[in-house]
Each structure stands twice: as C-alpha cells, then as structure tokens.
Amino acid sequence: MSLCIGIDEDIMIKLEENLIATTEPECSEKQCIQGKGYRITVLTSELFRIEVSIENNFLDKATQVVWFRNFDNPEYTAKEMKNNLQITTDKVTLFFDTKSLKAKYIKFNDSNRKIKCNNNYNLKGTIRTLDVFYLKKRLKNGIMSLNGVSVYDDSKSLILDNDGMISSREAKSNDIYIFAYGNNFRKCLKNFFRLTGKTPLIPRYALSNWWSRYKAYSQEEYIDLMKRFIKEDIPITVAVVDMDWHWVNVNEKFGTNYRRGRLILPGVLSVGWTGYSWNTDLFPDYKAFLKWLQEHNLKVTLNLHPVDGVRPYEDMYKEMALEMGIDPGSKEDIKFDITDPKFINAYFKILHHPYETEGVDFWWIDWQQGEKSKTKGLDPLWALNHYHFLDNRKEDKRPLILSRYAGAGSHRYPIGFSGDTVVSWGTLKFQIYFTATATNIGYAWWSHDIGGHCLGIKDDELYLRWVQYGVFSPILRLHSTSHDLQGKEPWNYSKDVEAFTKEQLRLRHRLLPYIYSMNYRTYNDSIALVEPMYYAHPEDKRAYLATEQYSFGSEFIVCPIIRKINKRLKMAYSDVWLPEGRWTDFFTAQIYKGNKWVRMFRGLNTIPVLAKEGAIIPISDNIGNDCSNPEKMTLHIYRGNSSFVLYEDNGYDNKYIDGKYAKTTFSVEENNDIIFNISKVEGVKEVIPKNRQYKLLFKDIVSAEKVEVRINDKIIEEINFNTDNCLSVELKNIEPDENVQVIISGYKIKENISYNEAIIEILTKYQASNILKMLQYKILQYTKSKDIATKDRYIEKIKRLCVLPKVIRGAVEEYLD
C-alpha cells in the first residue's frame, strides 16, 4: 500500500545537485563532416568519432563513457572520390566508404603504412571481476593496439542526461571511436582521458595498508585486532568492515520469512545479504567503535549489498518509507531502484549520510546481482559506482569507493575491487599481467585480495610473495574469507614469513611520498602508476613479451616472484627484461647492465625491484600509521642524470584542484662530481612541515674524498656523513624556501661482489653432498676476463656441464656481466 504524504505527484523529482556530473559533450561544427547516413568528428589528429545512422539521427549528449568532446579544432582536409571519403590530418589519413558506411583503414602519413580499422591486434584491457577463478580469464579490449589502430564501440552506452539520470538512446545507430596513435600509448591514454574524464586524485590514506576480512567480528574483537597491529608496529590506515556490520540472520532475529538469499557456501544461503542497521549484538556501541578507529588514524569503509532495498526491520525504514511515499504501517519492502531519482536521493540522504557523519569514510559496493535494471541496458553496478563516487565528494571531501569494474569509463570511480579470488600461484601470476594490462583502458587503481580470498592452498611462501607484490601494486589490501583457518594476519605464518611480511608492510607505508607523487602524476599527466613495459619501450619487441613485470611509477621496474623456492638452493627466480641503461636492485644493491634478459634469483625476503639510472626515491620516516607529509624523510639516490618531483597536499580534500599543493624538485647529476639538488618548494608551503630533515642515501657510492653542502649558495661547515653500507648525508632543519646542493667529489662507485664470491655464496646455501659441492665449486672457479669472447665461451662451457644442476648454472650466470 502506498501513501502520498504532502507530495504533489505532478512535481518532477530531480537528483540532488551533487549527484550530477559535469560534462561538455558537444563539439564544434568545424570538427564534423556529415553526409547521408554518417557523421565523422575529428577530435584530434589521431582520434576520430564515426556515427552511422540511416535517419541521420546523431548524438550530441554525454554517454556513460564519453563525457567530453569539446576538443581543440584540429586542422584537417576532407575529400571524397567514388564513395571514398579521405580525411587527412598532420598525422594520419582516415579512409571511409560512404556507400557501405564503414571505416576502411588508417594510413600513417610518416610511413604510408595502412592499417584496417578493427581490433585484431588489440593489446586488451580488463574485465569486471576475478571472482573464484582458477584459470586465466579472457580480457576485454582496450584502446591500445600492437599495430597502432584500435576501435572503441560506444553504441551500447546509454545517455547521461543533463539532469544526471540515465536514458536509452532514441534511435539505433553505430557510434565508434578510432584511436590511431601508433605506439605512442601514453598519448593515446591521455586523449582517452580527455574524452571520458580524468582519473581522480585518490586520498593519501588509501595508498598505505588496508585490513579486510569477511568475518563476523565483534566490536571488541576488531578493536583488539587493531591494537595488535599497533603493538606489532604494522601500519594499517584503512579498516574494512565486511557485511556482518549489519544484521545478517534476519529471519532468526526479526521473525521474518524471507526465502530469497545469496549463496555464500555450497548449500548455505544468506537472506540478510542487504542491510543498513548495525548489528548491536556484535557492535553494542557502533558510534564508539567508529570513534575509536578514527582516533587511531584509521579510515573506515563498510560493505554494501544493496540489491534487496530497505526492509521493515531496518532502523531507518520509517523515514525511508515516508520519503518514498509508502505507509510505514504497511511493512512493505522498499525496492531497490537505481533508476528512480526519488529512491537515489533517499538512498544517500537516509541510508548513508548519517553513518558518514558518525565516522564512515567511504563505501565498499559489493554488487554481485547481475547487470539488469528497469532502464534497459543500464548495469546497476555502473549506476552505483557513478552515484556513490559523486556523493562521496560532498563538502569538499576527496571521493573514494571500492567496487567492481563496470566497463570503459570506470577509471573515474576508483578504487576497483577484483573480487573473491582463489588462493593459488596461478592467481598471483595472472594478477601481475591483469593489473598492468588494465592501463590499456585507463583503469589504474585495481585492488586485489592480497594473499587470495578463499579455497586454494595454504602456502606461507605464496602469502609472502603476494604481500611483496602488494607493496608494489596500486593498493595493498589484505583480505580473506571467514574461516578460522584462513586469516591473513602475519603472525599466522612461520616466523621467517611473519618477520618478512611485517617488513614489507612497513615499507609500503614508508613509500607513501613516492606513491602519492605517482598518484598525482596519474591525475595530472595521465600516466598510470603501473604500466606494461611496452609503454616506455614501444619499439622493442621484448617489451611485449615481458608480461610478468611492469613499471611502478617513474623510477622502478618490478618483477614479482611467482614460483616456489628451489628447496636446495633456497632461492626462487624471475626472468626479468632490462631495457637499455644501468639498473640497481632496490633491496640487494646488485647492479645490472640493461638491454637483455636476466634470470634473477632471490631468497624469501625480496623480489627483483630495479631502480633506474638516476632514480630518486623519497621515503617517509613517519612513525606508526601516520599518513601526513613527513618531517623526516630518506631519499634513495642512484647515480645518473635525472630528477624527481615530490608532490604534496593535505591528502584528503579537493583544494589541490585550486592549486593548494606543494612541489619539491630533487635532481642528480653525474659528471666528474656527483651533484644533488633540492630545490626550494614551489606552491603552497603551508601543506608541508615548516622544516624538514633529510637523510640522503647514495646507494651506489661507497665513499668520497669530500662532501660539500651548500644552502642558498652558502657552504655549511659542519655536515654529517658516513659510509657504512653506502654514502649517507644528513641535512637538518631545511626550510621550504631554501635551495640545497650537495657536491660529492672523489667518490668510489659500489661494485658488485666478484663472480668467485657469488659462487661461494650460492654453493654455501645449496643443500647437497659436500663432496659434490666441492667438485662443483672447482669447476665454477673462474677469474673474470675482460675479453668478451672468453667470457661467452665460459658461459657456454658451464651450460654444457651436466655435473652442474640447471638451477646452479642459472644462479651463477646472473653474476656473469
């Protein structure tokens, strides 16, 4: 039974203003070439929109994917000859058949190379979820292509109207975009973002460590767990509370008789999958619970499954019913309807905003109930992501959600939740390729269940390797299922694995200055934190084969280990492709020459993380889970000629859009001397400490005859430096307006351990007969020759020696350079 209380049904309900996105979908008429049944828009010299409609019914509104077509007017010429329309820009020529109404091919003007307009060579993008999969999943297309031309089809994308609602297209038409950027993948992505909207700057706290578990925690149990993390000095900044924050056993609790449920285990249904009222049996004082988390520097997200709407037992049922024009006395369920503006407004105002006032920072939208809604073609997941993200930005708050991917354009709504993954080596391996490849559709912020969610195997080594990958992935969120035997707390594993895991989680937190600067780079420059190797090296075929590694920001190549340790050697390996240049391992300080593949062996405690020549890595020395811009900072500096811009703001609001941020440029020069510079801060200095203490670690310099420090060109007489493992220099009380220069003269470069030392190290660890090991040692002893031919002959010789196990041959070859 419905009850209208003081509501004029003739009044059109409109979305709240904060739920309406800003779009600019119309382009200049100068960009368009229109003929019978078609319209072609030249967006850039390498990006075309082609609409085909028999009725010449073309769309100038925003769609779910495309929000901006107001590009600058590129210069082009158009001529038609015998049903063949040629549109030429300074980069390419598009050939369009005006009879068949199809794009035939693109010709690149600099090479006259002609490429068909299809996705046969597409480098792929991403998919909705990795929920409970065992084998490699087929990815959907992205906008990057091996042959330089890709096609994005927007024909099924619905209209995003000016009032913020979604509607169907009025007429059937084809609406495609042709990206013809060759192998300039970053330029292609930048213009994709111009077309669809930028990737937002995510809050700083989201880039440290998250704790998450599908478990019915009590208030006391959850707080005790957070206290344990604090005691163990494990920095957690995001506290995830899964679905048991609300009532789940609703039939038992409220005497209801709901039959429809969600399969959570074979034969087990939960009818309380949806809920909005705190379970006071588990959380007797949820406000105190939220307050405690906030007071301990933890941001809070709660899990949502909104499919079942609002039921009569919910605390806010009466208010919601009245808002929807339903008599509360009827006890009628309020249906979930993400296509109804009245429901959408009430959904946020009544169900979510009060909890946000009390301490919930953002929402985990765990939609798993299909892709249909009352508006044909509208996936409820897309609508939930869209409106939740827009709503979360109110009151100048920097918005965030956690949810599954809902198609192209989802990069506007970070962060992505990849689903309930199986605990297996295969899952870990696939996630490495999966995460990097998602950049091909602009999706830069995937969050995986680090350690895996369910099923699979218990393997301490796998857990550690997953955490090590998580440190160098977009988001590190530990997660697992509810079973008592599957918790991902570090102390549930062997002592070595526990210790190494704690070190890695602390490192992730310390890397905040670096990762946050890359976060800004993603927002401002359209360069993702994680990129496939071919983005920076598109001309090298090897880059396309290096699918188990990736660039992590501007300074690193990372190659996680995805196979078990050799029990005898006590090491596992990764095959790493190193581009041209000098590369230094962040953990071992081993130096490698590039332009080759290297099989790198590592023990349990590290994975190959390679810093480029001239890399500068800013690391926080904050204590605990403090996410603020640090007063104390360590800089890892590697020889070369390069620079790094440290970006800082307050980390939580949108004032950065108006320029309220600070940038500090670090640079290193390698000539006769090593010269390192810290520039005075540019921008709003109030967002950073009044003065800062730096510890400079010159990672590949072991000593120096002289170290000179100048502040604003004035030589500082007393400086602290030492040469324990590498040259380190301490700078105290550096103010934002000061320029600092460090000049290192007469320096000694770090050298790798000798080949013979490497043999001793490898064979000492190797578990085998000592007599056999001594024989192997004698065979491997070698005085390294500068004669390349001699060295090459030696490598071939040891490869042929059957007495040497393959794993030892591989391990020693790593040191033959």
TrEMBL record:
Transmembrane segments: none
Glycoside hydrolase family 31 TIM barrel domain ranges (all copies): 199-518
GO molecular function: hydrolase activity, hydrolyzing O-glycosyl compounds
Stretches assigned to the Glycosyl hydrolase family 31 C-terminal domain: 529-617
Gene3D superfamilies: Glycosidases (3.20.20.80), Golgi alpha-mannosidase II (2.60.40.1180)
Keyword Hydrolase: yes
GO terms (BP aspect): carbohydrate metabolic process
Hydrolase recorded as keyword: yes
Every DUF5110 domain range: 633-698
Keywords: Glycosidase, Hydrolase
Matches recorded under PANTHER family: HYDROLASE, PUTATIVE (AFU_ORTHOLOGUE AFUA_1G03140)-RELATED (PTHR43863), MALTASE-GLUCOAMYLASE (PTHR43863:SF2)
Family: Belongs to the glycosyl hydrolase 31 family.
Protein name: DUF5110 domain-containing protein
